[in-house]
Amino acid sequence: MTPEDKGLPVHDRTDNTSVSLSFLDQTPAGSITSEKLPDNNSSSQIMISMAVEWAKQYYSMIWANNQNNLSQELEANTKLDITEFEQQRSRIVSQLLQMLNIAGEIAWNKIEALLGSHQVILNLIKKTEIIQDTCHLYRKTIEAYAQYEQPSRLSVLVGRDIIVIRRKYSSVNSLFLAILATEFNYVGKILLDWIPLESQSVFLLYFKVLEDYLHDPLAEIYALAATHPPDSEALIAVQQLLSQTTTIAENIYQRICQLYPDYCSMSGDLRNTMVHYSSVRDIELFQIYLCLCALEGSLRPIQEELFPICVILYPQLNVSWKLVQDMLSNILWQLYYNLSPESFRVFLPYIHALTEMFSDQVVY
């Protein structure tokens, strides 16, 4: 039995539903973020149609007049012991801490250039605050390096701060988390440019771990899971998927490499070490957001966080929408083959809605 046989809705382009959205309000008017997903197939198709209409308008709002590019990603193909280049440790740490706020200012200037045609959005964000929050996380990370803490310890040392800052922005407006992620990404690149070449790979390990924790809403998943009874179908499905996200992501990554042997983003080709790392991380991220949707019973996590981040960042990083579409198709089949039928049915409406939101009707 295929996913279609299990109730996967077919494409329906006959619905001319028009949803009027107010993107700058805390919750978009007409969005479905507060609605529970209906159980019947007909209602699910209506929900998906509304999600597609919302995604179309969101995508158009973001990219109608915005074609600037981010600077090229730093490539790092080697992993070094964090104790190497010991003689430079104190000097590098001191320099980075002194220049951190400057890096935050430069990063914000880049964001203003990136979203210059959407000044009304930028005016809603407190520039000083987002710079301070970003620099706070990097400061704690640099101090962890100075104290010989391993990158894996960042979840303990900085995890709580990341959760607080992440929730602070994601709870206000769907755009703010994406802008925070962009500011964070720029600051990391700027700091790496100021580090001697032979030490960049060491710091890259710390910065990438920090960036992963900022992107992944695992704390929200754990909090929501605690509200479900042990026999909850959604909880059981999420537990089953979370135990396999990395394996599934690796399988999908290998498949994408076969489909796109010559593909190259701004960060490099798919076989590049850091592109491999970030690609697997992104595939895992999509699965984690499916888990959030299942636990909440709504598309709110995708609409308010995942879709805005992708719309803002992927085109700038030269990430093909066709590649994203193939990745989502592979996620569906991986869920079908790796989960129990009951768990697969839990995720099916969400992965289908997500696929429709990233279809050619929306992104181009």
Describe the model.
With 364 residues, the chain is mostly helical. The protein contains 15 helices and two strands. It has a two-stranded antiparallel sheet with strand order 1-2. Strand 1 and strand 2 form a beta hairpin. Helix 4 (127-146) crosses helix 7 (174-193), helix 4 packs across helix 8 and helix 11 crosses helix 14 (321-338). The longest helix is centred in the first third of the chain and has 26 residues, at 89-114. Residues 4-39 and 64-80 have low confidence and may be disordered.
What is this entry, summarized?
This protein has helices spanning 41-63, 89-114, 119-122, 127-146, 154-157, 159-170, 174-193, 197-215, 218-225, 233-242, 245-259, 273-296, 300-313, 321-338, 341-357, and strands spanning 264-265, 268-269. It is mostly helical and 364 residues long.
| Inertia-based shape | globular
Summed up, the helix count is: 15
Low-confidence stretches: 4-39, 64-80
Proportion in β-strands: under 5%
Roughly how many Å is the radius of gyration? 21 Å
Main-sheet strand order equals 1-2
Structural category is mainly alpha
Number of strands: 2
Cα-to-Cα separation, first versus last residue: 32 Å
Mean pLDDT: 78
The helix/strand series, from N terminus to C terminus, equals HHHHHHHHHHHEEHHHH
Q: Which percent range fits the helix content?
A: 55-70%
Largest sheet: 2 strands, antiparallel
